[in-house]
Amino acid sequence: MKSKILALICCVFVFAFDVSAQAEGAREKEEATTMKEEATMTDIFGTFSCEDIKTRLENFHVILTEEPKLRGVIILYEGKQAKYIYNREGKSAIRYIPPSFGESAFLTQEMQEILIFKKLPIENFLFIDGGFRENFEVEFWIVPNGAKMPKPTPTLETIKYRKGVPLKIECGGS
User: Fold this and answer.
1) For 150, which of 10, 39, 110, 114 could close a Cys bridge (C-beta 3.0–4.6 Å)?
2) Per the domain annotation, does 74 fall within a domain?
């Protein structure tokens, strides 16, 4: 009788241990799958217009709404901006203008105003100051839940600013 009870207890223990091991294995597999997902850059640009920024933000939002477990990360790098300069004959050339202090912060504010005006959920977006690069750039990243956040990759330690106020685009509420 004792051996039957002992055998029954052993069977219950082995069964409980097996179920626990299966659950643990499934949990580890799910965590591994989640951790394998990585942040993905979907867009990078330097020069822009109001309509360009609006379109890019709307497209970025569409990607984020396709999967509710995604978050949008926008990294802005301060640097020279390309501007078209026209000569007396009407011919254009690109000239790179050093930034004024705070231009990337101003653009971040403008992008947030566009999101609010378009009634897009601003909490789905994270804005990061990426530091300095030779030329101004903006990166759009998609980050799944559990994935590592993208790290800014500045190429310059400092930058020389021009005097004056930031180049304003002011297109958030239009």
Assistant:
1) 39
2) yes
